[in-house]
Amino acid sequence: MSIFSKIKDAIFGHKAEAAPAPAPEASAIPMEAAPQPASTMAEPVDIAANLGAMPGSDGLNWRTSIVDLMKLVGIDASYENRKDLAHELGNADYSGSAEDNITLHKQVMKALADNGGKVPAELLD
Questions:
Q1: How far is CA 52 from the centre of its chain?
Q2: Residue 87: left (phi > 0), alpha (psi -120 to 50), or beta?
Q3: Which of 72, 91, 102, 120 has the most CB atoms lying inside 10 A of its own CB?
Q4: 98 within a domain of the structure (yes/no)
């Protein structure tokens, strides 16, 4: 499994825990009157809310730091893992500099948005 997939799964997997949907009552709507959804498209996952709800999020700078983001979701934030992640996202020139880490964080946020996440604009810029 790719590192980005692990990050995405860790964040998107918390959606059900963060906002459980109430079960409909069986007798509330007759079977023949139950409307069918027009689309099966799921609501976007609120990335900031899910990350902010994770244990330890208040002690990490996950909003700007790729290292802290990886730590928060339980992934080793070593240089090698960050380099592999950068390569997955199309950055073959990753060197581990502060600028590279900022760029990598933004690439991860953009990839999360591209995969059905709702990412605040300030995390994308």
A1: 11
A2: alpha
A3: 72
A4: yes
Return the DSSP state at 60.
S
- CB within 8 A of 102, min separation 6: which ones? 64, 66
Q: Is 52 a domain residue?
A: yes
> What is the rounded end-to-end Cα distance, in angstroms, of the chain?
28
- Residues 70-125 pLDDT 10s: 999 999 999 999 999 999 999 999 999 999 999 999 999 999 999 999 999 999 87
Q: What whole-number distance in Å separates Cα of residue 109 and Cα of residue 105?
A: 6
Instruction: Answer whether residue 70 is part of any domain.
Output: yes
